[in-house]
Fold:
Amino acid sequence: MIFKKQIEQINEMIYSGAKEFFDWIARLLGYPEVRGMPILPSDFELREQLQQRDVLPKHITQIPPNQEAYPQNFLEALFGVFPYTMPIEKHFYEHEAEGYYNFYVENYRNMYFLPDWISAFLQIQLKVSVDHSGIEFARDLLFYMLLLYGFVLNIRTLLYWFIIINPYTYPWVFFVDLTDWLYDYLAGLLPCFLGIDLVPSFVMIIVGKLTDSLNHLVFTMPFLPSEGNPVKMVIDGDTKDVVQFHNLPYLWYKYPIPNDLREFWYFERPDIFKFMEQSYKQLGLEFRPLSVISQSSNLVTSVENIPILKDLNISSTQFICSNIFDYQHFWDFFTSTNI
Structure:
């Protein structure tokens, strides 16, 4: 009986610990905004939404590129056309009511977005806003690094089949050092089949999937991914499912707009600055750059520090009105006196 109670306590501890762990992972991935795929969708609208997503087109990428890609230099002629990223294209547009920073992407069923908290961190802490060419370069760099590592994994797997080659001699030992640490961590994860270790094949699948997924990753700056609206648009005469991002980004409302962007509006694009002030003035946002704000504050400070006004402890309006009153009193006295 005592052991039974201890076993029940242990089961409860394991259950609560596992629940907290999975809840933490779910919150990290954006739950409850991203609820995931339900097991048994009973709601008709939810079932229709899931079925609609299943019929969405799929973003197709080809690694290596198709045979129609011709070599452009001598190296490509010798080693083949080098793979390149094929990300989902973003279409920017301007609208008189929605502003200047609107865009849409075609809706694909294998399209990925960053979680909101990662996108907000990149925009607030790393100052990635309208110009996100830096993180796009980082995505391309990671893409090529994964491709190179997949090439190294492929050579290491081929060494298993060439018994005459000792993999622990130069130059093959470099491939062993770069790959065997990963195989050692995953050893025992998959059983051997007919004496063949399946872990290298499993690792190749994971690396290939990660490499291909980078082509389906969409950066939504200056918007958060959750601000996208799935709508239908007529594009080139065809009705397509798109995800639209428009109007004022949420982070520009919650946090100050980046100063470099405000300077660009104020000094180089006054049409954008005028639109922002007229459209979102009621929100109490500051669209002027810090340099203009500091100049305005210095001008007000210099006016308040005029000596005569400072000594009399009165405002400029009161000073002017009092002098006008004295001059009017003097004129009345002069005109009413008979000389």
